[in-house]
Sequence to fold (362 residues):
Amino acid sequence: MTKLIYDADIDGAALDGQTVAVIGYGSQGEAHARNLSESGATVVVGLRPDSTSAERAREAGLNVTDAASATKEANVVMVLVPDTAAPSVYHNEIEPNLQDGALLMFAHGFNIHFGTIDPPGGIDVGMVAPKGPGHLVRRLYEGGGGVPALFAVHRDATGTARARTLAYAAAIGAGKAGILETTFAEETETDLFGEQAVLCGGVTSLVTAGFETLVDAGYQPELAYFETMHELKLIVDLMYQGGLAYMRYSISDTAEYGDYVSGPRIVDERVRAEMKRILTEIQDGSFAKRWIAEGADGAPEFRRMRGENARSRIEEVGAELRSHMAFLNPRSAPDGWTDDGRAGSTPEAAAATAAGARERAE
Fold:
C-alpha cells in the first residue's frame, strides 16, 4: 500500500527565508494564502488591479499587488486561477518575471500535462492539490486539522523542488491529514475522470434522473426531492466516515438488500463501458481539445447547459424547500452566474490556451 506522508516526515524549514506568491484569491487562493501566512510563511497575493478580492485579502492582513510584481518578489509561485485563464496569466505576467530557480506550482496538473504552460528549464515545477474545496481547506486548518492532498514534482532544476513542495503542502495543513505522491499526468487524468464520471457528472445525472422518474410517475416533487437529493448527504456522510461497509451497516436491511440487487442494474456493463470511453477521451486529449475549443468560441455550449440545468425542476423544488431550512445554512449561486462567462475566459486567454495545447491534445 502506498505510504502517505505526514508532518513528521516533512522539513518545514524548506520554505524559510522564501517568499510565496499566491496568484488568485478565489476559494483555493484565499485558503492557501491565509493558511501559509498563519504557518509563518511570507506571502504576497497577486491579483488584477480591478480585482474585487483585493480588499478581502488586505483585510486578512495579506500583502496584495499585481501578479507580475508578486512573481518578481517570489521564490515560490502558486498559480490558483481557473485552468482556462492560467495560460494567459502565466505568459503575460508570470513567465517574464520568474526568478531563476523559482518553484512554479499548481493545484491541478491540467495546463502542464496538456502543454498549455511549459516553464523554462531553470524553473522547478511542482503541484499541491488538496482533495477538497478551498473553504474546507481553510476551515479544517483553523480547527487544527487539514485536508488530504496530492503532490508531484514535474521538474527539479534546483534539487530543492521536492522539499519545498512538501513544505508548502504542510503549511496549508495537508500534512495533518496525509499527502500522497503522484504525477501531473495521473492527477490530471484521475481528477477529470472523477469529476465527470462520479463526483459531478455521475452524481448529478443520477440524482436528476431519479427525481424525474418519481415525478413523472405521479409522486409529489417535494417527496421526490427528499428521497433523491436531500438524503444523499446522509448516505455520503456515512461513507465518508467509514466506507461502504459502515454505510451499509448503518442503514436498514431492506435498504442494504436493495443496494446489492438494484445498484448493479443502474451501473451496468453499458455504464462501465461508457466510463472507459470517458477515461480514454481524457487520456488521449480529446476532452481537453473540446474544452479548449469551447472556450475559444466563447463557451456557447457551456453557457447553454449551465442555464438549462439551473432552471431544472429539481432546482426549483429544492430552492423552495431549502428556504425553510435555515439550519442548513442554504446557499444559492449569485445572480447572473448562468451568463457571467466565468469558464469561457477572455478571447485572448482562450486563444493562448488553444495554441499551447493543440499539439498535446491533437
Notes: Residues 340-362 have pLDDT under 50 and may be disordered. The beta strands are 19-23, 42-46, 63-65, 76-79, 103-106, 124-130, 149-155, 179-181. The radius of gyration is 22 Å. The longest strand covers residues 124-130.
